[in-house]
Every structure is written in structure tokens, then in C-alpha cells.
Automatic annotation (TrEMBL):
Residues 29-159 form the AIP/AIPL N-terminal FKBP-type PPIase domain. One of its GO terms (molecular function) is peptidyl-prolyl cis-trans isomerase activity. The keyword Cytoplasm applies. PANTHER family: ARYL HYDROCARBON RECEPTOR INTERACTING PROTEIN RELATED, ARYL-HYDROCARBON-INTERACTING PROTEIN-LIKE 1. This is Aryl-hydrocarbon-interacting protein-like 1. InterPro entries: AIP/AIPL1/TTC9 (IPR039663), PPIase_AIP (IPR056277), PPIase_dom_sf (IPR046357), TPR-like_helical_dom_sf (IPR011990), TPR_rpt (IPR019734). Its main location: cytoplasm. It comes from Latimeria chalumnae (Coelacanth). It is found in: Cytoplasm; Nucleus.
Length: 331
């Protein structure tokens, strides 16, 4: 073992400092005074090619965890606790520490893709997960899940923030905190939407939905607490769809609104937004059918529906004229 390599006082871990950090080792307090640690990481296989599994720098967003908050991959807390600010170190970790990594990686990848990190396992009970193999949706993670192996983590510690100096991320909140965060996120989303900042509003609505879906997994489906959360989720999802319409992402609107309608056939706003999305992709018959359903559910929407139908009629006339000219030119 050379001078650059040292063994941590932990079985199955070897540390190599690649770039020295600055200052003293941060002191991490548990209990109420927890610190947030921000770092970049790269995960590699221990093969001849040192195959990269994940790289936060390629994703473009550093990882953040709250030390002492029972993060599923607890070895990371141990590794980070051995580092100074700006230090870059390589850690070889035996399989006893890496068994849960495929599941953690799955969640991190979904977050980076803007998806709910929890919904992929919602419908499988805990016992079934223990005794059956389920695909994680990524071939490399499936392979690692079937055959656990030692891994190499290259970590760059960026910063350690003192208690109360950082905004709590929703994934790090407990159930009560998540429920309290939802109306705040909802309000921020509405404000951003009115300002025309649709991308930012989308992120707020999405974060609120993820909070609620996480809470909903802990309730029995179709009972009162579950239904209350479902109503909140649908409201936020439809706000999210309004942003998507402004951004021109019409097919995603069709997907979300159809899912809501399939489960809640009286969801008036879902029909209205789906009709507008159908208009944008030239589905004339489908748009008219949805607008008709809106009128059946609420006759007081007649003026708004008439306005949209006039727009649809004008647009279809223009499209038909353009098509005639196009085909005339072809022949």
C-alpha cells in the first residue's frame, strides 16, 4: 500500500486520496442539527475497464444528502465523513456495502429524468420484493442486482452546509413536512404560471405531485385518506398539463389527462384540457367529443366551449385550404 492509499476504520473499504481538500474534517452532528452535504460522484465497476455505472457530472447536478437522515446507502455517509472540502477521493467498497446500490441508482436516475423516484415499486408489496426478482428498467442495474459486486466510488466533496442554512429538499422531509410543503409548491407554481415562466412552474407542480404520491403509497387505495391525496394529485397534474400546453408538449397532455379520465370519468377540467390538446394535433373529432363531454358535465361552460369550437373550426378550415394547395402542387 503506497502513501496515497489508506484503509478507513471500516471493514471492506479502501480509500485513495486523489486530490487533497482544505480545512479540518467537517463535524457532522446527528439529531435535530443535521448538515446537508453536496458532492459529485462517479460509480465504477471493479473490472479491467473500470466501467462507469453513474456519473453525476454527466447528469449536470451534484448529489445532496442529509447526514444522519438514514440515507439508504449508509456507506456514503461514512465515506463523506472522512473527507475535507474540495477533496477528491476514490473508495473501493466490498459487496457488503454495495448491495442496495442498484435500487439507489434507479431512484437517482429517475430524479435526473424528472420522474417520480418512488412510483416504479408502488404496486409491489414488501414481501414480494424480498422473494422475487424485479427488473429495475436498466440492464446494467439489473445485472448488478442479480450478481452484487464490489464497486468503486470517486467522490468530490463540494460543500457542507450548517443547520438551517439550507432549504430542505422534499425527498428529505418527513410525511408532515411533505404535506406542509405541497400548498407552498402549489402557490409558487401558480405564481410562476401567471408570470409566463412555464418551465419553472412545471418543476414546482411536479415536485408537489411527487410529495403527494409518496404519501399516497402509505395509504390503502380508495379509502378516504387515499382519495383526499388523489384529488390533490389530480389538481396539480392538471395545472402541470396547462404548463405543458403552453410549452407545446401536447401528446404528454393527452397521456396525463386520459389517465385521469380513465380513473375519474367526471373530471371536467381533464376533458377540457384534453380537448385543447386534441385541437393542437388536429384531432378534430376527438376534440369535439371532449368539448361535448364538458358541456354535459357543466352546461355553464357553454360560452368557453363555443369560443374554443370557433377557434377549432377556423383552424381546420385553414388546414384544409393548406392541404388542398399542397396536393394541387404535387399533381
Amino acid at each position: 500500500m503506497d502513501d496515497k492509499t489508506m484503509l478507513l476504520n471500516v471493514d471492506g473499504v479502501k480509500k485513495t486520496i486523489l486530490h487533497g481538500g482544505t480545512g479540518e474534517l467537517p463535524k457532522f452532528l446527528t439529531g435535530a442539527k443535521k448538515k446537508k452535504v453536496t458532492f459529485h460522484f462517479r460509480t465504477l465497476r471493479c473490472d479491467d475497464d473500470r466501467t462507469v455505472i453513474d456519473d453525476s457530472k454527466k447528469v449536470g447536478t451534484p448529489m445532496e444528502i442529509i447526514i444522519g437522515n438514514m440515507f439508504k446507502l449508509d456507506i456514503w455517509e461514512i465515506l463523506l465523513s472522512s473527507m475535507r472540502i474540495a477533496e477528491v477521493s476514490e473508495f473501493w467498497c466490498d459487496v457488503i456495502h454495495t448491495g442496495l446500490y442498484p435500487i439507489i441508482s434507479k431512484s437517482l436516475r429517475r430524479i435526473s429524468e424528472g420522474k417520480d423516484p418512488t412510483d416504479w415499486h408502488v404496486h409491489t408489496c414488501g414481501l414480494a420484493n424480498m422473494f422475487a426478482y424485479h427488473s429495475l428498467g436498466y440492464d446494467d442495474l439489473d445485472e448488478l442486482q442479480k450478481e452484487p459486486a464490489p464497486l468503486i466510488f470517486i467522490i468530490e466533496l463540494l460543500k457542507v452546509e450548517l443547520p438551517n442554512a439550507y432549504k430542505r429538499e422534499t425527498w428529505a422531509m418527513n410525511n408532515d413536512e411533505k404535506l406542509q410543503a405541497v400548498p407552498i409548491l402549489h402557490g409558487e407554481g401558480n405564481r410562476l404560471f401567471k408570470l409566463g415562466r412555464y418551465e419553472e412552474a412545471t418543476a414546482k407542480y411536479q415536485e408537489a405531485v411527487i410529495c403527494l404520491k409518496n404519501l399516497q403509497t402509505k395509504e390503502k387505495p380508495w379509502l378516504a385518506p387515499w382519495l383526499k391525496l388523489e384529488k390533490m394529485i389530480n389538481t396539480l397534474t392538471l395545472n402541470y398539463c396547462q404548463c405543458l400546453l403552453k410549452k407545446g408538449e401536447y401528446y404528454e397532455v393527452l397521456e396525463h389527462t386520459t389517465d385521469i379520465i380513465n380513473h375519474h370519468p367526471a373530471a371536467l377540467k381533464a376533458y377540457f384540457l384534453r380537448a385543447k390538446a386534441h385541437m393542437e394535433v388536429w384531432n378534430e373529432a376527438e376534440a369535439k367529443a371532449d368539448f361535448q363531454k364538458v358541456l354535459e358535465l357543466d352546461p355553464e361552460m357553454r360560452r368557453a366551449v363555443k369560443k374554443e369550437l370557433r377557434v377549432l373550426e377556423c383552424r381546420m378550415q385553414l388546414k384544409n385550404e393548406e392541404d388542398k394547395l399542397k396536393y394541387k402542387g404535387m399533381f
